Amino acid sequence: MAIRTYFPGRGTMIERALLEGEAKGRVKGLAEGRAEGLAEGLIEGRRLVVVSALRSRDIDISLEVRERILSCTDLDTLERWLDRAFIVATAEELFSE
Question: What is this structure's pTM?
Fold first, then answer.
């Protein structure tokens, strides 16, 4: 919480500008936080879906493969792995180019 000093002329243009600036900063910060949270959630969901797709096909997933999938932060890579998860014979084949 910010500590405020007394503005001698409450309601002055300077005080209003300060308050408007703070409000805009909060709104911008919330929007950026929401967007970042949504992106992280989408990535986490893709990770889990890749693992789930392999499991549903009864494909064994080694600890190394699971860790690689669950640590991936690139959405494009996860999408590519998800597409491959439905056609590969082994989990390791996800990573072959």
Answer: 0.68
